[in-house]
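Example record

Each entry pairs one chain with its bound ligand, zinc ion.
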Amino acid sequence: MPHSRKYKRMKSNKRKLIKSILWDSQPHQCAYCKKPFLDKSEATLDHIVPKCRAGTDDLSNLCLACKECNDAKANQNAKKFRKRIRKNI
Ligand SMILES: [Zn+2]
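Structure tokens for the complex follow.
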């Protein structure tokens, strides 16, 4: 379906742009475990309030997280996840 392919491409361009903005405006480290990113490709875009919990694509709801944290966080709320991480450390 050409329409959905086009939509996906637009979405990925937007994500790239948002990631660049966050990369330029935030410390180069994971928002949760504070692991430093050596390269932009290590950072993933994470929703602070997950989309399934009515989170938005707004910049204020997005942060940079390492892949491990992003995977571990999944659909949890960032506040809850931070607490869980602190317990583990
Ligand atoms: Zn992390």
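DSSP finds three helices and two strands in the chain.
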